[in-house]
Structure prediction request, 1158 residues.
Amino acid sequence: MKDKLLALRDEALSRLEHSDLEAWRVEYLGKKGELATVLRGMATLSAEERPVVGQYANQVRAVLEEAFAARKAELDSHQATLREQAETIDVTLAGRISYLGAEHPLRKVIRRIEDIFVGFGFTVEDGPEVELDRYNFEALNLPKDHPARDMQDTFYLTDEILLRTHTSPVQARTLERRCPETPIRIVVPGRVYRRDDDDATHSHAFMQIEALVVDHGIRMSDLKGILVQFARELFGADQEIRLRPSFFPFTEPSAEMDIRCIYCHGDGCSTCKQTGWIEILGCGMVHPHVLEAGGYDAGSLTGFAIGMGVERIAMLSYQVEDIRQFYLNDVRLLEQFATLTR
Amino acid sequence: MKITWNWLSQYVDLQGLTPKQVAEDLTNAGIPVEYLAPVATGIENVVVGHVKSADQHPNADRLRVCTVAVGAAADLTIVCGAANVAAGQRVPVALVGARLPQGPIGKSTLRGVASEGMICSASELGLDVRLLPRDQTTGIFVLPADAPVGESIVEYLELSDMVMELELTPNRSDCLSLRGVAYEVAALYSRKVSMQAPELRTPPQEKLPLTVEVATDRCMAYSAQVVSGLSLRPSPLWMQTRLLAVGVRPINNIVDITNYVMFEWGQPLHAFDYDAIAGGRIIVRDAQREEALMTLDGQARALEPAMTVIADPEKALGLAGVMGGESSEVTANTRAVVIESALFDPLQTRRTGKRLQLRSEAGTRFEKGIDPAATLPALARAVELLCAYGGGAIASGPRLAGAALADVEPGQDAVRQVGVRAARAAAVLGFAVDAGQILSVCERLQFAAREENGTVLVDVPSRRPDIRIEEDLIEEIARLVGYDHIPATMIVGPLTGGELSRAQYLTRLATDHLIALGMQQVVTYSFVSPTVAERMRLQPDDELLRMIPLLHPLSEERSVLRTTMLPSLLEVAEYNVNRRRVDLRLFEIGTVYLPESLPLQKQPTERRVIAGLLIGQVQAPSPHGESRTIDFFDVKGMVESLLLRMGLEDKAQYTRSQAPFLHGGQAADIETAGSAIGLIGKIHRDVCANFGMDLTDAFYFELSLEALLPLVRDRLRVEDLPRYPGVSRDLALVVSRTLPVAELLSSVRSAAGLFLEDVRVFDVYTGEHVGDAEKSVALRLSFRSRERTLADDDLQEPMAAILRAAKSAYGAVLRE
Prediction:
């Protein structure tokens, strides 16, 4: 009986590889299979032999079942391999990519600058582009026929209504609206208009960003502090700045801020006209007349204002030579900004 | 404003300073020097020569063989081709080995005669020939007879003098004169200005009488004097070269002297022909209605009462501060001139100049305001120079009129007192300032000042009209101490949280969402052409026609403010399609300008609009099957996605739009609760064609940001997750093909009862299995109870109710 089992085991194992797996299982392990047949013969054995042979028989069953499972796994894996081979594709082919959108470079610059000032605790304000002479000029210490109005040729819609020539009327409006509240800390992005013929450096419409702080005890050194930090955030941690005296009707003292040339780092190049410095924005301490026009007491409050051209910063940052590029909207240029992470 | 180094050095001590240093320091003090370079460069070994003889060349008709003395032992033989060379002239001679801007000069032989150098023309010396009189630019440059033979031409013509161009801010009109710049430089280096004001002189005998009368309040001061016996000739060469260097064309001694003195003192002057003035009487008055004047430039000008004229009792002689008249112009026949030095109302000068489109160096100075203290010295200086270089003699006493001269002490500046407190200066600037420092700054500026109870009282001279209030003086302190001295500090005050307004935040959200959907942001101009109305097929009563016109547009093409974003985006599309970029998904969040009425009475409403324009393929070409052209539902999907992102998709309704610029069958107005928030649709074929795009299926959408603003969701409380499973049922209803599915859905929703959770259309079928005028709409209805698991029985009544409602409202039939 024992020999019979051993012979059965060896035969089954030797045939496993060449048989159909299911047929093999039915033949040897099935209810009517060889092993079952042998076991049915156990009834003829003596009571002493029966447990011994039974144990033997179970061992053989275990060996065969294990062999079956291993063979099945082997065949399944082979099947899977074949299936994958049949399904193999060229992974180097491009995927179904959807179009990549992009933010316009001018909007990108505005967002960046807004974020810097929001980080300083400034609120973003805006105001109308079609403005009253009163806010665009008069409240900003630019009475009618002031020669400084010539600095900004204006598009008029009527005698009193015009397209704002700068974002500064939002200063006047904010002061008037919020008076006597302090502190005022605002940043104002927006579109402005000047009656200039379009060329590589002029556009009849362009964008500015303006910042205004009004409070007790605001000093010009605070202005410088904000500017130093602003320049570092916008252009890099080691960015140097300098202030030069200048003139704006709505600030006194007034200054022009230069940054150390971001291309030659001060050695002199064509961008900085060999000076090592690039003019980037105008600023100054809010003129007392502007504070008074807004209802504030210029004797006890001071403030500073900063104004810059968005296109100029975009031109410098992205090395765009012609301001009109921003308004042509050639998608071949705009698409390049899809890959810029900030 | 241009000046030269040598000219400046006449009025302020520049010892030990270099032009480069001064230019840099002026720039840092708020007087930016835009340009700094010598008058001419690259000239060596060119000297003044004396032409002793000029004989015909033996072998050439057009050449002369000259013997030229150059101050050396031996005279030179030079062959010269210029027609104007003649014996006795003083001329610039380039010696052998000389350098000129266009190259070196060597020994040469011309038609058999050896030439030992070259006699030079003005252009060969690098002078600006456009500004020189014609007779000095044809042929060789003939120098005055007293030019010292042998002297270097660079020295003689001051060609190494440095020209500085100042870019002045409007407040610094004082620096429109060498006098002003001299004071500025003096302040920078604590030096003294040495500028003498000559005194007005009265002749022993009044030869040519003159009276002056001011009959308008638009002339604050008028001074004049007659100089006779003049001979009109070129001004001295040094004066010509200086004027040339600062960009003024030399004309004759009289004109040159008025210009020279204007640069020196900042006071414009005018010379009238004395004989043209009837009765020797000058009257300054307002122009009369219908009065006419022939100005110096030969133009007949129609005058208006708003203009001020210089007149005699019979006629207008010139426009005050703007331009002289032809009848009183100084000519070769002039035997005496009246020199005018006056103060005219800046506004009047500015308006008249603008009205007649006349801009001049003099006009600019009048507009910005002139120092009354310079008026009389300038007159005296001009008279002095006319006597010295015009052969003239004083023929009348100086005549003065006008209130402004009354307060001026001869030789003394008028002053305005402005106080500045050291504590205030320190508080504004952010660094320590004491009275001593302020006094020292005043000393440098040559302002008299004294301290009184903590305030420094400053006598600001009239040459600095920009200094009026304490802050102006604080700027002077900061400027002269140096802006570099200002420390960088942090604002002291309460913390404030920076933030965006809701509208700004929503703008960013929409921008980011549309970009993520693959759209390209653009930025377009707000000005459009009025022709867009017609190109957009707008009807006469369309409110989009109310485009606000600019009073003075730069071009017809950009002459009105847009009322819709569509033409702006179409222009961008056209530009790109013309460059073969035919797959476009453009958007802009821009402004449109909607007036309440036209002509404009008040500021228009400015509405922010999210607008998009899509053309071309749904996807970029890929190897994975054919792409297809974008259609209405691609675009609607984007709009729905954006509205969903803002939390209001459920609220939006789409109804067929009548917009004339959109396709009659593929356009919808978007509304929420009955108010319009935007529109979407295929752009009308003709509109595409009118914007230069024939082929294209183009789609457009716009959403009003203001309309969305009150609807967006910025708070969320999460719903509990359901505890019981939902059940879904599909239902196909056959309805009329023209029935909008949205209507069917709304009747289904209202009939379905409490358990309906969601209903979606998953198929719309038309074809052989339904009638020609019918369609089958397949709905998937999801039901759920929050209290229990629904059984089949629970759905029988709702399903029956849905069918009943659809049948009674739309004749819907269940499709088996």
